[in-house]
Design a protein that fits this description.
Number of strands: 2
Strand order of the largest sheet: 1-2
Structural class: mainly alpha
């Protein structure tokens, strides 16, 4: 067993030596890599602070306020339905002892149907809210992307990134285009 392990180590060492030799003896590939990285000298990246855009882009504020108002409206509708269900349930609790078996069964069935309708309505409202939220936020994202395409025509950035404090560890503020972005988006929004 010792001889086998020793032989395996020798074979692995030889394989590493051959790979090492092939890697460093192949000079034309290294020149290509160096030449292509030299051409990448014009590679520029810009970024913008998304939290600033969220706080200062008027259209996004309007979208958020509209979504919040709709969420509150749907919440009120659900609350009214929930209160009606609770009222019927409490009525059944207080009058249940004086009801006949058939009346009690009918009221219980009515409560079961109300509860089912309430859950169905709640689920439909949540889905409607999620769909509208997604649609509106995709529209905001599209507006930002379209503006950045126009903005970048004469700037020459290879990438424009959205910055988040937990995503980037270092940012040179020279490449921060947040103020330009917010100003441009708001100007474009005011025109429309």
């Amino acid at each position: 067993m010792k001889n086998f392990t020793f032989g395996l180590n020798i074979a692995l060492f030889a394989a590493v030596a051959v790979l090492f030799y092939w890697h460093f003896s192949n000079k034309p590939q290294n020149k290509t890599v160096i030449a292509s990285s030299a051409n990448a000298g014009n590679f520029r990246v810009a970024y913008f602070e998304m939290d600033t855009v969220q706080n200062q882009f008027e259209y996004l504020k309007e979208v958020r306020n509209g979504l919040l108002a709709k969420d509150q409206s749907l919440g009120k509708q659900l609350s009214i339905m929930q209160n009606e269900f609770t009222k019927k349930y409490q009525e059944l609790q207080s009058r249940g002892a004086s009801m006949s078996q058939a009346e009690l069964a009918a009221k219980q069935q009515e409560l079961v149907e109300m509860d089912k309708n309430l859950k169905t309505k709640k689920q439909a409202m949540e889905q409607e809210m999620a769909d509208e939220s997604t649609r509106k936020l995709q529209d905001v994202k599209k507006k930002i992307e379209d503006y950045l395409k126009t903005y970048n025509k004469d700037k020459g950035y290879a990438y424009i990134l959205s910055s988040s404090s937990d995503l980037f560890y270092y940012k040179d503020s020279v490449y921060n285009i947040t103020n330009d972005l917010v100003k441009g988006l708001n100007d474009l929004y005011k025109k429309k």
